[in-house]
Amino acid sequence: MFSSSGVIGIQLVVTMVMASVMQKIIPHYSLARWLLCNGSLRWYQHPTEEELRILAGKQQKGKSKKDRKYNGHIENKPLTIPKDIDLHLETKSVTEVDTLVLHYFPEYQWLVDFTVAATVVYLVTEVYYNFVKPTQEMNISLVWCLLVLSFAIKVLFSLTTHYFKVEDGGERSVCVTFGFFFFVKAMAVLIVTENYLEFGLETGFTNFSDSAMQFLEKQGLESQGPVSKLTFKFFLAIFCSLIGAFLTFPGLRLAQMHLDALNLATEKITQTLLHINFLAPLFMVLLWVKPITKDYIMNPPLGKENVPLMTEATFDTLRLWLIILLCVLRLAMMRSHLQAYLNLAQKCVDQMKKEAGRISTVELQKMVARVFYYLCVIALQYVAPLVMLLHTTLLLKTLGNHSWGIYPESSLPVDSSLHSSSVYSELPSTDGKMKVTVTQITVALSSLKNIFTPLLFRGLLSFLTWWIAACLFSTSLFGLFYHQYLTVA
Question: What biological-process GO terms show up in the record (predicted)?
Answer without folding.
Answer: regulation of cardiac muscle cell action potential; regulation of heart rate
